[in-house]
Amino acid sequence: METLITKLLHLPPVASEHGQGLDNLMLYVHLLMFALLLGWGAFFLYALWRFRQSRSAKANPEGVRSHVSSYLEVGVAVVEGILLIGFAVPLWARGASFENFPDEKEATVVKVIGRQFNWMAWYPGADGVFGRSAPEFVGDSNPLGVDPDDANGKDDVVVESSDVYAPVGKPVVAHISSLDVIHSFSVKSMRVTQDAIPGLSIPVWFTPTVEGTYQITCAQLCGQGHSSMRGLFHAVTPAEFTSWLGEHTRTSGEQVSYE
User: How far apart are CA 39 and CA 45, in angstroms?
Assistant: First the structure.
């Protein structure tokens, strides 16, 4: 959704539940920085005029007696405290605190794995349980090392084409990781960015609110092909997501298919 803030800050339209709060915070910070720019710029010009050599040929050993600057500094600190305590900390606690993570049973759960130079999405299928993976199963045709004999993975869906699907109006819990170097999963319209670090699985969550197709980028320089590491995040209706998942779910005994 395009708003006045997205136009002023040249941001992509907001398409997630928490995105407007982030945009509001960015606007307030920009306004504070603009006020400081005007204030300190005016003070600098005043100082050049007030203490010009023709007027103050001899230095004043007593210095400034006014406490206006002290009051201004306290005022700036108070505003910064309000932004931090009143906006930034609650926003972070709501989105990053594990206590506020949605129940995965009530969310769309997906593992998003980065590698040079594409993204892979791994869904648990209808049973809601990811199949086992282990290093001994890793190969050219099985980069995630999915155990082909694990019953829990029989209905898993693995998409290698840098496409991630999720239904609107439902929380998405994405477990972000990497197979090689440090990447960074970023969907600007969802206001989501999370580093993908080898050996770690870092969960983030957000709720898509607007249907559409949004670009996935890598926000971390990851090699010579970094600029081509793009993908698409598809926010679709629940019915469309169920249909898409059903089309990609494997049948019993079928090997893992990398789309």
Answer: 10
Q: Are strands 212-218 and 183-187 parallel, antiparallel or unpaired?
A: antiparallel
Please identify which residue in the block is written with the tokens 């319209």.
189
Q: Say if residue 41's pLDDT is above 80.
A: yes
Half-sphere exposure of 74 (CA within 13 A, CB side): 5
Of 45, 78, 99, the position where a domain reaches its end is 99
The answer on 63 and 158 residing in a single domain is no
Taking the model in full, what pTM does it have? 0.80
Do residues 119 and 113 lie in contact, with contact meaning Cβ atoms separated by under 8 Å? yes
- Alpha carbon distance 64, 216 (integer Å): 54
**Considering only 38-42, 95-99, 245-249, which range has the smallest mean pLDDT?**
95-99
Number of domains in the chain: 2
Report the distance separating Cα 195 and Cα 219, nearest Å: 8
Domain end (from 69, 99, 129): 99
Q: Longest Cα pair distance anywhere in the chain, in angstroms? A: 92
Collect all residues with Cβ–Cβ distance below 8 Å to 50 and sequence separation of at least 6: 56
Structural domain of residue 29, as residue ranges? 4-99
E strands within the chain? 108-115, 118-123, 157-159, 163-167, 172-178, 183-187, 192-196, 202-206, 212-218, 231-236
In a shared domain, residues 90 and 201: no
